[in-house]
Write a structure and sequence with these properties.
With 244 residues, the chain is of the alpha+beta class. It folds into two domains: 2-92 and 162-228, 2-Layer Sandwich (Gyrase A, domain 2), CATH 3.30.1360; 115-156. 42% of the residues lie in helices and 14% in strands. The chain has helices at residues 25-33, 42-46, 48-58, 77-84, 115-141, 146-153, 171-181, 188-204, 208-213; strands at 2-3, 15-22, 68-76, 90-94, 162-170. α1 (25-33) packs across α3 and α5 packs antiparallel against α6 (146-153). 29% of the residues are buried.
Length: 244
Amino acid sequence: MTPVKSSESVQGFNSVELLGYYGGDETHALSAWTSTSRDLTDEKRNRMGKLLHDLASAGHATPFEKSSLHFLITSDVASHIHLIKHRVGVSVNAESARYKELKDDKFYIPVDWDEEERSSYVGFMEDALKCYHQTLERLVAKGMSRKRAKESARFYLPYGNQITADVMFNFKSFTHFMGLRYSEHAQLEVRELALKMLQQVLLTGKFNMSLSAFKYIDVNGVIVPPGKLLFSNFTCNTNIFFVI
């Protein structure tokens, strides 16, 4: 697994860090060529992009399962729920307010709200987090076990509270996630998370042919806006997608 260094502030914003990755375009191509010969000649290298494009277009997805992408994602609860709906080829482990007492108050602030709404919301979130901490201590003072106090005090935490999750995709599952979440029909917050994930994968330089095969980048290596993406060649058993 190749480590990647990247981070950003989480207070008020959702964040993505690509912790590492395994494989890439060559891994996908060699997996496909296992059917005939894994010998990687110059001639094969020159047609690797076309091979990956043909695989994606034909829905032959198995070779794309052979690489993995490992992220650390801090997001609001609503976006976290979107994440955990993806289970095939995806592994998720997240911080738990049941087992962990949340000491660091962090919450997402909607980027498209005006200053009046943002100010009102921040006040609400600060009050909710204060209630969480104070209730936890009161319950313990009244004789409740700290374990039970932690797991019940979290009912005060709203959807804006942020959760950090360790998420790993195989590349095929990553494209399925992108198809639903990097979409003009997806909620703004999860769509922005998907874009950050896509940007960091592109920066590795290891998946460009595969991203191009699925139409996520154009011929110049630039990420395609979600409204202009074509999903008809998507590697799934159906051409119908539902965004929840």
